[in-house]
Amino acid sequence: MKKTKLRTFYHPKMAVNPENITGYANSPAKPRLLMEYLEKKELMEFFLVDDSFPLLTRDDFYIAHTKEMVDNFFDKGKTSKILHINWTPEYAESVKYENASLYHAIRYAVQHPEEVCFSPSCGFHHATPTRSALFCAFSGQVIASMKVYYEFGLCGAYIDLDGHWGNSIDNSRDFVLEIDNAISPVCGNINIFSNHKKYIEELKANLEILGKEIIEGRIHYVVFCHGADSHEWDELASQLSTDEWIECSNLVYTYILKLQEETQKQIPLILSLFGGYRKDDYESVLSLHTTDLVTCLNILCGHSIKYKPSIKPRLT
Ligand SMILES: [Zn+2]
């Protein structure tokens, strides 16, 4: 069993004030919106918030991106290919905190594998070495995993169940030296492209491959990103019914538990949020993420929390 609380790397500056969101996506405000939702549902007793993590340096961003791109973003407010998000100093600051949150969550988890670490972050997996893309400013996964590799020599894997292909890692393979040592080239970026039952079968098959890599010592930590836009009522993707979406959470945590029992070792596990849009009812997005977190707490941390998902059908 893991410890009873999710160690949560959250600082209020990770999020843009929801009142300042003008574009399509709530993503820049999502970390705060989720934390407020957990508070409202009286679930905060299960989260141990750590807000003392330091920010990344400019050099850290250069690990995964060209100097030109990074400097343009932070010094000139120039963003390429970011959809509907206006650059503001507040947004730039939130990006710094979001990237630091994921890195410190992974860094802590590999040193304290008995704790599940949670980074309530989302905007990483579409950025490339030269461009931001969609709602993602920088490749936070690549930066975090490279830093963890440089410091500890460890290799990780991402289970990216967002509704869209997380291209950052694969697009960085030629740009970032040694990335294959930091993020497994075998199954370091698990994305599933099918729907419903077939999706679940593919997830199971991928977990088996991941398990083999963990048992044989080639993968040392797992980051699970259960994007809420893989849910069928999200307007930007649609792959899984509510029951199927929750089953994916169940499968991942049950599989980690089984591996831990088999190996008699704690496997470092880190959670992140990724996508989820629902302009008609954003609470459905927050409820899906909360369901995932509660599933983790129940399966891996020994709780029996009764949280009822509240996912409203899309009207359009
Ligand atoms: Zn997505």
Helix and strand arrangement:
Elements lengths: L5 E4 L20 H11 L6 E4 L7 H5 L4 H10 L12 H23 L5 E3 L20 H13 L3 E5 L7 H4 L7 H4 L6 E2 L5 H20 L5 E5 L16 H22 L5 E4 L9 H19 L16
Parallel strand pairs: 1-2, 1-3, 3-7, 4-5, 4-6, 6-7
Helix pairs in contact: 1-10, 4-5, 8-9, 9-10
Bound molecules: zinc ion (ZN).
The site of zinc ion has 7 residues, from loops.
Shape: globular
Nearest-angstrom radius of gyration? 18 Å
Strand content: 5-15%
* Low-confidence region ranges: none
Number of strands: 7
- Order of strands side by side in the largest beta sheet? 2-1-3-7-6-4-5
Number of helices, counting only DSSP H or I runs of 4 residues or more: 10
Q: Provide the succession of SSEs.
A: EHEHHHEHEHHEHEHEH
What ions, cofactors and ligands are bound? Answer: zinc ion
Judged by helices, strands and strand pairing, the structural class is alpha/beta
Terminal CA distance reads 43 Å
Tell me about the biggest sheet?
7 strands, parallel
Q: Mean of the pLDDT scores?
A: 95
Helix content: 40-55%
Summarize the structure.
The chain is an alpha/beta fold and about 325 residues long. It has helices at about 30-40, 60, 65-75, 90-110, 140-150, 170, 180, 195-215, 240-265, 280-300, and strands at about 5-10, 45-50, 115-120, 155-160, 190, 220-225, 270.
